[in-house]
Amino acid sequence: MAHRILTSECRAVGSGNTVMFGFRCYLLETSSVSRNWKAGSLKSVQEFDSFGLPSIDMENPLIEILKDVVKCSRDLAQIHRNTLNIIQDKNIQNVVQRNRHKELYDKYDDSLSHIDKLRETCMDMKNNKHSLVKDIKELKQRDRIHQDEMANLKRVNNAKLHSLERKVQALNAEIDRLKELCGEDIVSECTKNELALKLLKKHKVDEGIYKSTIHTLQERNRELRDQMLNLKEDIILARAHKSSAS
């Protein structure tokens, strides 16, 4: 009986039949079922409070209670629609966020790959630097050896020149001594000229050998300096490449 009356009331609310709705609410209020329905619906109606809806006073007339229930039901439906819209927006935001995370992870992987390549390049440059330093050290050592050879050749040449000068002085002294012993010129002007020419030729030959040796050493020294300059340029270029890569 109570179920039939309540169903009729709900139909009246849905159809907008105000007169019948009021009449049936009056019948419902005057019947003994009203008290039983109020008591059974109290717990269900109190659930509206958990959604932030206005509380319903179960002591009010039944028609007022039903009006409040309908209003709260409409508000609850609106809350449900808003909640669905919020969930949909959140789902869209989650999709955008996942795509953004994927892009960031891809960029992170690309950055790791780039870092690995930079490390390989840095290692190659370190190895190249080590090789260049070793070559420079060898070139410096060869340059010192060549400089020592040039110094030795200079000392030998100077010693030969001093020796030739002493020999010429000894020959002149010997000529003077023979002149004093014999009382006449043993060596004519022609002989003196021939002797001087021989000594001069020998001196020129020695000087030519000395100059040729010095020229050869100078060429080697120039080549070594050019190689050292090229190595320095390679080191500077390698450092510049390393700075631009980092």
Q: Briefly, what CATH class of the largest domain?
A: Mainly Alpha
Would you tell me the overall average pLDDT? Answer: 73
The best one-word shape is rod-shaped
**Element pattern in H and E:** HHHHH
Kindly give the count of domains.
2
3D structure, described in words:
- It is built from five helices and no strands.
- The chain is an all-alpha fold.
- It has two domains: 2-99, no CATH class; 132-245, Helix Hairpins, CATH 1.10.287.
- Helix 1 packs antiparallel against helix 2 and helix 4 (62-182) runs antiparallel to helix 5.
- The radius of gyration is 60 Å and the shape is rod-shaped.
- The model is unreliable at 1-33 (pLDDT under 50).
- Keywords: Coiled coil.
- Residues 115-181 form a coiled coil.
Keywords:
246 residues; mainly alpha; rod-shaped; disordered N terminus; coiled coil
Topology:
Blueprint: H1 2-15, H2 18-30, H3 33-45, H4 62-182, H5 189-245
Helix pairs in contact: 1-2, 4-5
Task: Report a brief summary of the structure.
This protein is mostly helical and 246 residues long. 89% of the residues lie in helices and 0% in strands.
